[in-house]
Amino acid sequence: MKIIDGGVCAAKGFKANGIHCGIRKNRVKRDLALIYSETPCTAAATYTTNLVKGAPLLVTKQNISNGYAKAIICNSGNANTCNANGVEIANLTCSLLAEKLNIDANDVVVASTGVIGQPLNIEPIKNGIPSLVEGLSDNGSEFASEAIMTTDTVKKEIAVEFIIGGKTCKIGGICKGSGMIHPNMATMLVFITTDCKISAQMLQKALSSDIKETFNMVSIDGDTSTNDMVTVLANGLAGNDEIVSDGEDFKEFMKALNTVTVNLCRKIASDGEGATKLLECVVSGGKTLEIAKTVAKSVICSSLTKAAMFGADANWGRVLCAIGYSGANVDINKIDVYFKSNKGTIAVCKNGSGVDFSEEKAKEILLENEIDIIVDLNDGEFNSTAWGCDLTYDYVKINGDYRT
Amino acid sequence: MKIIDGGVCAAKGFKANGIHCGIRKNRVKRDLALIYSETPCTAAATYTTNLVKGAPLLVTKQNISNGYAKAIICNSGNANTCNANGVEIANLTCSLLAEKLNIDANDVVVASTGVIGQPLNIEPIKNGIPSLVEGLSDNGSEFASEAIMTTDTVKKEIAVEFIIGGKTCKIGGICKGSGMIHPNMATMLVFITTDCKISAQMLQKALSSDIKETFNMVSIDGDTSTNDMVTVLANGLAGNDEIVSDGEDFKEFMKALNTVTVNLCRKIASDGEGATKLLECVVSGGKTLEIAKTVAKSVICSSLTKAAMFGADANWGRVLCAIGYSGANVDINKIDVYFKSNKGTIAVCKNGSGVDFSEEKAKEILLENEIDIIVDLNDGEFNSTAWGCDLTYDYVKINGDYRT
Fold first, then answer.
1. Hey, are the CB atoms on A402 and B315 less than 8 Å from each other?
2. From CA B342, how far away is CA B255, in angstroms rounded?
3. Looking at residues A307-311, what average pLDDT do you find?
4. How far is B363 from chain A (nearest CA, A)?
């Protein structure tokens, strides 16, 4: 497997584009994205667990219920959520695009991200669709990734190449996500494309299994968004024998998918609103997988731990505290904690109690911008990793006046 | 019932003091508090639910297992938690104090607050106890409340007078709590004294019932501390017939206790680390009490809602979002949301969708420093209130370099 360029256009037959259509009046940036495969694709998706669900999610769920799709359209600047006419607008977006592309409206995946509870005006979208479609190109992934950004500060894309049954397949993705990010889906939109041939059922199985260990283990601020969606389209142009069941081919596909998703998770976490550091909590020695996951998520979500990491302060007591209130059944007296970065590793807690360590060395390690918080529960065989970021002044700044 | 002065010394027979003994080398503030009743008291307490429990909690639990106590000693600057010799130090603190007061060591309630995982040096405590005891006075509540502060910016005390069986009783309390505050106990220490005569069993019943609707409904940052404790001592000097069962007298006592605890909850929330605003989420119309409570807590804990309140931004979508991911079984399409302060009330969401409102008026309301977020679930008869505060730059500042 190797990492390649191209994002969502890396896989054969996918084109993309992103334009500024004017959804936000006071901000000139690309705000409408399109990904398109002329060849029909099998499609899979997962959605937010929030009871408040953006209208686009309801429409997408309906549209891909037959397992197929050809296009993904996404606007930023407005979430089209909690609006009385939300479903109508999302459906209209699909039909306007479908008409221009000459496809069925229910072959469109639709997504939105931005402010909740403000009516989404269809006019800029309607006026933008012609140039959006006309500008589709094999190297449009970057424009698309830019168009789905909200408070994101960097574009997020990745692609990899892998072999299935002697055929070279590609899989790539773009995503956005910066705030309102929390386990079990979050304000993240992830669009993945592949030319691997795989049935809709197995594609959904792969995605549903993968996100449990990837996107559901990312938290920026504990707020689970209303609009999260992860979608994969597979157009089969790589020419491999269709994956229709478990087996070696499926395993290979899962591995490639996981490489893409972990990469995107790390990108989302390190671009968390206001973040200066990517935090990775690596838990080992859990009695069960659930315990390892609960501990990893609790540490990554602790505001006090996050603020300490911002200050490069080796305040490991906050890590232990977060493990203690996680609800996981652990033996505190067995726990070891380490901090690690590319400046080295330092042990700060053994058997649940503090150990002498060099504050100077700890500071040096924690001043880096990728920090691993390593927790060994010493109580079993199960491991888990969660991703997050530090809590900074800029998080507050960004969210104190997001709408204005 | 009327509010009176005196804090923990308002009730007959209680004296208090607070001194600087030098636990933190680099900070000259009072750091050792004492509350004392010469007359034996019935005692009740509740403790953190964190699996990591401060050593003082373990010792206190043991000491008051017989239902009685006479003194409370508390240091700030060091939590005496996650230290190999923690229990030993906490026991030593009790016996040193007991010797000076000429009481039994197991009549002492001991508490600590501050940094986790750094050994607590007994020397400053040992050296401080003589002057701590000698300085006990009828108006020492303020010194005691000052001595238990960590990142608190204001002293927190309250007392009320009430009548039971024709006898005038008093109940008062002091508390500390600013960060690491989350439902189900939090870094809060609350010490309450009363001269009402009540059995240990009924005192515990009153406290355990009260905290479910008060201290367990306060959240500053979602981090449940290792050292939380709420303690009540009742010395019976008011001369009422002892409360030994449910009935009118018990109800009166509960009402007075609740007045004290709600007042302290509001003080803790409004002094949350870095807070500029007290937030109160008032939920009505819940199908069950559990649903109303879950919704109130979820809104109060939402970082995005908290940051929006800091920015006086009427971003009600974040409130709805927090209700949606709370896990409570609600019908989103029935929900109304209002913002209220002493500048008025404004409706921002009806039946789960946005309504037109004056942004100018909303701003005026949200610029106040006590904000009510009013949620009507329109789905039943149950109500609940939770308290919290906004998320500000200063929260990050305070917690980015707490240890240094």
1. yes
2. 26
3. 90
4. 12
